[in-house]
């Protein structure tokens, strides 16, 4: 260690004249605070309080004299992964010390001291939330401002030096706020509601404290700017009035805040109008209120600290009990137990829970409700959200673990089902996992009962997770109740077909496959609500008519399977064992080749997943109008070399022999052939006015007669099947 490096370390964290508690044992609370400079000359102590203390005071949160430094330790993460994790998060730390064992201690030191413990705790919690997004398991014991940390330059009992790795310097609070904001966290959302249980009346807090409270917790989203001067001062005055302040005090405070009294004080006078006397009072906690609040918190922390000093045998029992009850959560009024093996939530009976843990027991984590956010790959999966983490993510990751390796069983099954489109199905799977909200074409597997359709579907179920997949019968799909859409990433419909209303089913499939707006969920005997649907569809059928397809059917990927699969011993067991290898391949090999999904509709172009089987289904049961029109067009392009066939409705009816109404014919042209537009009354060559027996030479351009009509045009490339 460089000479005076320890002194530089302490100078980074403390100001001249401040006192620090130093000790050689983690539970040493009796050492009184002393000057940090003397210790900097003789590095003997192992621990120090991260924030300064009152002179001659022992280590306790209530004795902290300045709230400036925040400690973060992640010893649950392997040592070699800790520094890369902090670097990836771009964490603005001030000092880094190697503990001499299994962790690095990072301290963030602010240039300006905080004014309240509420702010300190909220900022610490917010930083922890961001670090957790990057995979950190932050030690919650570090949250106290009087916490002991390893002293840089000190020595452990075994002689290992607690090496100072880096000294960066202090950071302004604005920089920390910007870092939190860039990571989607507003630290003020973690501030406690100190007056939640207070009677609705004004307090004895002084005027400046009330002003500070209103500005911090009530006016934080409003700005005093051009166009908002009148409204800003009116709202601020009305809130200050509701804290119990008179108009003169309010006027003085607003002048101090804004630098002026707008419009001669008219907004303030309006706020004190008698018609607003019914406004609810705003209670601002006094300093005594805050002191009592934190004394209670400190008592709880002290009790927890004492519990950590039990013998190993006792602690083992406590850990076992904690792990048992920790498996339970409550969502709303419903109880659930987590099955760690399957990674699913099991509905649990409240009475049984109380029988096991006592009538006063409650699950360690309670939520107001569920939300749904699919996430297969982020380093820290999203579990909780909301201002106070009051909602629980209903999405649950499959329990496979990514690891490099081969997946011959899965590869063989996918090659059997998708043949020359094997690479495309790998991309389909990768997009499903890496970008789970991206819309993808529905897969339709067609073939006889023994070609292995169900075995192939099992791969997708394991990939997306059993808990995130749902099997739906045809009658369920056509039912008015669609609760199966809830919290679903994969919808499977086996033996699809025999629909009561084929046209309506086809339209509903098309809507669900590409819908981006919230969908109304209609649950039997329960209230309706709207939610987003990100699920993918896989249908299977024994024949080539599982779904009535209209038009180009660009949302469907049809694969006909004709060959029998190779028999594989313990197929399903092998699929489960190989899933981690398969997932690793999708993320690390296929993933980098993908284009980032910015497409509002389907990720792939229809040409990429075109198959002859889909052409067959499209043509199947299209009706007499479609068949006659297609036959007529195909006959024309087979007999003549023209690239276009010009016609009007009259000539088309004459050529096809159709006597249906114009509306039906135009609908067929638009939906089935993509022929939607026609020109005004113009002169063109009339293709269908020629007798089929006329020799091709008559069709030379200069020889054709022209006729004035409203024309449609059929193109060879769109009609003739490859």
What does this structure look like?
- It is elongated, with a radius of gyration of 36 Å.
- It is 36% helix and 15% strand.
- The strands form nine sheets. It has a five-stranded parallel beta sheet. A four-stranded antiparallel beta sheet has the order 5-7-6-9, sandwiched between helices. It has a four-stranded mixed beta sheet with strand order 12-11-10-13.
- Helix 7 crosses helix 8 and helix 15 packs across helix 18.
Instruction: Give helix % range.
Output: 25-40%
Structural class: alpha/beta
Q: Can you tell me the CATH architecture of the largest domain? A: 3-Layer(aba) Sandwich
CATH topology of the largest domain: Rossmann fold
Characterize the main sheet: 5 strands, parallel
Rounded average pLDDT = 82
Regarding CATH, which class of the largest domain? Alpha Beta
Oligomeric form of this entry? single chain
Q: What is the total number of structural domains? A: 5
How far do the termini sit from each other? 77 Å
Which regions contain 5 or more consecutive residues with pLDDT less than 50? Answer: 196-200, 304-323
Shape: elongated
- Tell me the β content: 15-25%
CATH H-level name of the largest domain... which superfamily?
A: P-loop containing nucleotide triphosphate hydrolases
User: What's the Cα radius of gyration?
Assistant: 36 Å
**Total number of β-strand segments?**
27
Order of the strands making up the biggest sheet: 18-19-22-17-23
- Give the number of helices: 23
């Amino acid at each position: 260690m460089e000479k005076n490096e320890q002194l530089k370390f302490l100078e980074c964290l403390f100001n001249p004249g401040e006192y620090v508690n130093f000790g050689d044992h983690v539970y040493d609370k009796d050492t009184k605070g002393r000057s940090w400079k003397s210790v900097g000359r003789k590095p003997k102590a192992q621990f120090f309080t991260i924030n300064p203390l009152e002179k001659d005071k022992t280590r306790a949160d209530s004795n902290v004299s300045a709230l400036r430094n925040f400690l973060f330790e992640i010893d649950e993460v392997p040592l070699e992964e800790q520094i890369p994790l902090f670097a990836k998060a771009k964490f603005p730390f001030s000092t880094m010390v190697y503990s001499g064992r299994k962790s690095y201690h990072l301290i963030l030191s602010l240039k300006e001291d905080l004014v309240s413990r509420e702010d300190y705790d909220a900022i610490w919690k917010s930083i922890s939330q961001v670090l957790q997004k990057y995979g950190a398991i932050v030690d919650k014991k570090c949250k106290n401002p009087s916490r002991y940390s390893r002293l840089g330059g000190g020595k452990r009992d075994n002689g290992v030096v607690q090496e100072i790795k880096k000294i960066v310097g202090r950071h302004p609070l604005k920089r920390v706020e910007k870092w939190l904001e860039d990571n989607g966290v507003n630290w003020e959302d973690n501030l406690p509601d100190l007056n939640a249980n207070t009677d609705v009346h004004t307090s004895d807090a002084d005027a400046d404290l009330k002003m500070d409270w209103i500005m911090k917790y009530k006016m934080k989203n409003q700005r005093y700017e051009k166009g908002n001067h009148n409204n800003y001062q009116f709202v601020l005055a009305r809130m200050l009035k509701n804290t119990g302040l008179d108009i003169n005090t309010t006027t003085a405070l607003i002048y101090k805040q804004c630098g002026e009294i707008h419009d001669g004080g008219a907004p303030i006078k309006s706020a004190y109008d008698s018609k607003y006397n019914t406004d609810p009072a705003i209670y601002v906690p006094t300093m005594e209120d805050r002191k009592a609040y934190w004394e209670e918190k400190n008592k709880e922390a002290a009790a927890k600290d004492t519990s950590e000093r039990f013998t190993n045998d006792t602690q083992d029992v406590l850990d076992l009990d904690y792990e048992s009850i920790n498996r339970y959560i409550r969502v709303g009024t419903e109880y659930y137990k987590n099955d760690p093996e399957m990674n699913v939530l099991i509905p649990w009976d409240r009475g049984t829970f109380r029988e096991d843990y006592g009538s006063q027991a409650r699950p360690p984590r309670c939520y107001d409700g569920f939300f749904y956010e699919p996430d297969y790959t982020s380093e820290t999966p999203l579990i909780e959200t909301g201002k106070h983490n009051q909602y629980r993510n209903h999405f649950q990751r499959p329990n496979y673990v990514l690891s490099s390796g081969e997946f011959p069983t899965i590869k063989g099954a996918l090659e059997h089902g998708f043949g020359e489109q094997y690479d495309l199905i790998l991309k389909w799977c990768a997009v499903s996992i890496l970008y789970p909200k991206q819309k993808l074409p529905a897969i339709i597997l067609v073939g006889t009962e023994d070609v292995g359709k169900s075995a192939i579907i099992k791969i997708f179920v394991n990939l997306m997770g059993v808990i995130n997949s749902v099997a739906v019968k045809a009658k369920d799909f056509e039912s008015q109740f669609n609760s199966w859409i809830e919290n679903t990433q994969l919808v499977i419909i086996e033996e699809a077909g025999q629909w009561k209303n084929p046209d309506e089913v086809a339209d509903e499939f098309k809507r669900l496959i590409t819908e981006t707006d919230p969908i109304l969920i209609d649950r039997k005997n329960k209230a309706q609500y709207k939610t987003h649907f990100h699920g993918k569809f896989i249908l299977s059928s024994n024949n080539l008519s599982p779904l009535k397809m209209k038009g180009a059917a660009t949302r469907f990927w049809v694969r006909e399977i004709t060959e029998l699969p190779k028999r594989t011993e313990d197929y399903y067991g092998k699929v489960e064992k190989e899933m981690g290898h398969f997932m690793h391949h999708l993320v690390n090999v296929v993933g980098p080749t993908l284009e980032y999904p910015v497409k509002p509709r389907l990720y792939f172009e229809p040409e990429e997943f075109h198959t002859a089987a889909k052409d067959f289904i499209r043509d199947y049961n299209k009706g007499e109008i479609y068949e006659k029109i297609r036959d007529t067009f195909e006959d024309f392009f087979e007999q003549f070399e023209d690239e276009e066939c010009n016609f009007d409705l009259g000539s088309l009816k004459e050529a096809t022999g159709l006597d249906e109404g114009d509306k039906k014919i135009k609908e067929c042209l638009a939906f089935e052939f993509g022929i939607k537009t026609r020109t005004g009354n113009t002169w063109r060559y009339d293709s269908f006015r020629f007798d089929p027996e006329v020799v091709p030479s008559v069709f030379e351009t200069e020889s054709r007669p022209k006729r004035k009509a409203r024309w449609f045009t059929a193109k060879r490339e769109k009609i003739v099947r490859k």
